[in-house]
Amino acid sequence: MAECGAGRKALNRRPQSGNTGETVTIMKILNTILLIIVAAEAMAAGYFVILSKDIVPLPELNVATLEPGMADQFRAFRGNLDLGDPESWLRLGLVYRALGMLPESSYCYQQFDRLSPNNPEGLYYWGVCLSRMGNTRAAAAKFEQAIALESEKSVTCWYMLGRDHLRDGNGRMAELALRRCAHEEPQATIMLTRLLTRTGKADEVQPLISNLVKQQPTNMVANQWKSWAEEALGNHEVAEHFEHMTRRCPAPPSNQRPELPADENVYRQFGGSRLATEGVRAVADGDTALGIDLLRQALTVQWREIYAIRLAELELTAGDHEAAVATLSDIVERAGASAESLYLLGQAHQQLEDRQAARQHWERAATFPASRNPEVSAKIHEVLADTYRESGEQELASRQEGLMHYERGKLAWRVSDFSIALDEFANAAELLDDHAHTWYYLAEARHASQDEPGAREAYARCLAINPNHGRAIRRLEALSQLPAD
Question: ∠ at Cα 186 (182, 188), nearest 5°?
């Protein structure tokens, strides 16, 4: 019995000893797995910290600064960006800058520079943004850094440096910067000409401004500064020639600064500008109805006179004359009357067979200069001539016909088409014997056509009508010094 009891105890002890060993082994395995998990978590945390340095939050979006309807478009644009991609930050910075959100734009360029250091394009755009913020010293650092990289942006960076130095009143540094780029950037040539002419160095800039006028003969500002530079050097006859050339040039565009086209591209991507751009494209593709619909949507988002004028023109083309009257009346109420809007309003009323209203609008239109579209002036006088002729008012009709020829002559004169200009001014002079400007331009056209006797006669007739016509006085004096044929 005792042996049996001892055997049972022995049997009972063996399993206990075996369980302890297995437990220790399992615990070791578990500890190893736990260590692996902890190490993996630590590695993941470290990776997350590293990754978080590369992805930073977007700047706050202040929708109060955006036009109605643009906020949702802008949010969608931002939502599609890859914040780990430097190009996304560059694009976003351009948009913020164009919309006038300069601190936000600067933040984006900072992130672009962090992800793509020493990129001349990013440095240039960052410098432009800082310049607009008035921080010209910080902007200069970016421009100089971009210049040191010898990229295609170097010329524009030199121009921006020169312009900012002028803003800061540092003419010496501005001159040095502008000289570095004036041979490639027309605006720098004009700016340098202005600076040197005003500081008594007009002779130094003559080769540059002369070359620019040769390359761009219809550049009004270039001809103007060429004239002033020649005047400063005492070359009065040459200065007079280029002063006359300015009157044969179209008005300079408003986006001549080299950094502005990028802004305009952004405007066309959002809000009313995007809808208007799509509307114009639809019309070009032959879908006038869609173009009208998109322009109406654009005006709902952002009312702009240029969109409304285009809409009215399309409504007239489509035969929706009542809608055109409503659109044009709204233009006059919102933006005031203009030659263009009143001319179209008269056209719409004529199509509605309200001839009296059409006549009143055209007569009022004739009192405004056609600043947006010079061709409209000739059209106004043409329709008035027809209107007066139909009502038997021949004297009024003849005068309007003469003014029509005068305006057509000026259009030809501005593009140096002297043959057509001469014919138009001659026709105008037959009908407008008392119109001093007609006789002055007839004299100019004859002079350009090498008809010096005819030019003298026309200048004299101009002065007989208006003895104080300064340009005619100077031109006749200059001709009088030449031998008569």
Answer: 45
